[in-house]
Specification:
CATH architecture of the domain at 2-9 and 67-377: Alpha-Beta Barrel
Strand content: 5-15%
Number of helices: 18
Helix content: 40-55%
CATH class of the domain at 2-9 and 67-377: Alpha Beta
CATH superfamily of the domain at 2-9 and 67-377: Trimethylamine methyltransferase-like
CATH topology of the domain at 2-9 and 67-377: TIM Barrel
Structural class: alpha/beta
Radius of gyration: 24 Å
């Protein structure tokens, strides 16, 4: 994990926060939030909230009372204790890309496969900059739809020893994730004592929580597993075009979802989620790495802290179709405010391409390089007498150079950031060695990383029990 001890960048005044609060309160009371699951509506009804059909008109003060029950910080346990994470405070945890149906490899765009899914797990295990491979790293289209989640969870549990995200396609899939987690960690009591999964539950914006997401939320919250409750807002499509309007809607949706989790199980861990960007108003296409999304990201961090919640936002987002200059600068446009905001849980931190439609091996390496550089940049500078290197001035004197100074020779291996991907060769040497651009270098790096991958150890009995569970459930599902 990375502890971000730099000051967080906050751009909202107290007056602006008050205006936003009036905005989300009015949405909750006058428009309401739809919950497409009768059990959710009934929980709110029993708690004294006004209900019309499946729309709940929430008392904002009641919602804040529920939100206050959620822990400000919590741990997620990995099977390797060294890879457990703390969510909240100044801690930042980074997870890989989530959700793409396609893969880009060696310049070719194609359907993602289970082999791709496993390789991305291996890359996430290999690079310490990633605290989690994620959940739906890519959609393995060569595996049966009804049972592929079993193989995906098994890959996360066996190819990595880091934390992982649970499947949320249905309540049944969530139950399978929980059951497999019980096998891996030694029973229901063990996983309820400290969460072992953190799962994404998206709002079907505007103002609708759908039944499948709610089914998964009920399972995970009841088992005391962490859920990231995330409004999915593309300004101009799922929210009004102004950033303040989107922020008010985001608050109404997220806080309503958090309140529901606390009704399911008081004090269960939740994360205030944000996925906020905009569409191209000429084409209608989603845009990522935009100035508007960066501003919304910075606001979200401040808002989450204001309500005492850990939060998720940001990542290495881009609309680019390839691992090119656009992919790099748009990813930085999102990752930099991710760090400035002090985001606690970062999804899509490596591998996202083409608006989230594609998981890219080369882009994965580009993003790892960005994460490495930003970690260095956001490590506070330590200034002491030794770092002033006065002795080096005495040794070199006037008009000399410091290349051979004792101070330099003692520190040259570690004094500056050493890049994973970037090239600083002179033109002649770069040309002589093949004139490889960043994408070509990234291609060589990820292939080398896969060759060097070492699978983390797992007890044979546990592995066999997991595999047996997967086979049994696959037969039950008819696959």
């Amino acid at each position: 994990m990375f502890e971000n001890r730099m000051p967080h960048y906050e751009i909202l005044s107290e007056e602006a926060l008050a205006v936003l609060e009036r905005g989300w309160r009015r949405i909750m009371t006058e428009v309401g939030v739809q919950f497409a699951k009768p059990e959710a509506v009934e929980l709110f009804r029993k708690a004294g909230q006004a209900v019309e059909g499946d729309v709940v008109f929430l008392d904002p003060d009641f919602v804040l009372e529920q939100v206050a029950l959620a822990p400000r910080e919590f741990d997620v346990r990995a099977r390797n204790p060294q890879h457990s994470v703390h969510v909240g405070g100044n801690e930042m945890a980074f997870s890989g890309v989530y959700g793409p149906p396609f893969v880009l490899e060696d310049g070719r765009r194609r359907d993602a496969t289970m082999a791709d899914y496993r390789r991305f797990c291996m890359l996430a295990q290999h690079y310490p900059e990633l605290d989690s491979a994620g959940g739906v790293i890519c959609e393995p289209n060569d595996a049966p739809l009804d049972s592929r989640h079993l193989d995906m969870v098994l890959a996360l549990q066996t190819l990595t020893d880091k934390i992982y995200m649970g499947n949320v396609v249905s309540g049944a899939n969530a139950r399978d994730t929980i059951a497999m987690s019980e096998i891996l960690f030694g029973g229901r009591d063990a996983i309820e004592e400290t969460p072992v999964t953190i799962s994404l539950v998206n709002c079907n914006s505007p103002l609708r929580w759908d039944d499948r997401m709610l089914d998964a939320q009920f399972e995970y919250s009841a088992a005391n597993q962490a859920v990231v409750l995330t409004p999915f807002l593309l300004m101009g499509a799922m929210s009004p075009v102004s950033i303040p309007a989107a922020l008010a809607q985001q608050l109404a949706e997220a806080l309503a979802g958090i309140a529901l989790s606390q009704l399911i199980r008081p004090a269960c861990p939740v994360v205030f989620g944000s996925f906020l960007s905009n569409i191209d108003m000429q084409s209608g296409s989603p845009c990522f790495g935009t100035p508007e999304s960066a501003v919304g990201l910075l606001c979200t961090g401040q808002i989450a802290r204001h309500y005492g919640l850990p939060f998720r936002t940001g990542g290495g987002l881009t609309s680019s179709q390839g691992p090119d200059a656009q992919a790099g600068y748009e990813a930085l446009m999102t990752l930099l405010p991710t760090f400035l905001a002090g985001t606690n849980f970062v999804m899509h931190a490596a591998g996202w391409l083409e608006g989230g439609l594609v998981a890219s091996y080369e882009k994965f390496i580009v993003d790892v390089e960005l994460l490495r550089m930003l970690r260095q940049e956001f490590t506070p500078l330590e200034i002491d007498e030794e770092s002033l290197a006065f002795g080096a001035h005495e040794e070199v004197g006037h008009g000399g150079h410091f290349l051979g100074a004792a101070h330099t020779l003692e520190r040259f291996r570690t004094c500056f950031y050493r890049p994973l991907l970037s090239s600083s060769q002179n033109y002649e040497r770069w040309t002589r060695e093949g004139a490889h651009d960043a994408a070509a270098r990234a291609r060589a790096i990820y292939k080398k990383a896969l060759d060097e991958y070492e699978q983390p150890p797992l007890e044979d009995a546990v592995r066999e029990e997991l595999e047996s569970y997967v086979e049994r459930r696959r037969r039950e599902l008819g696959d």
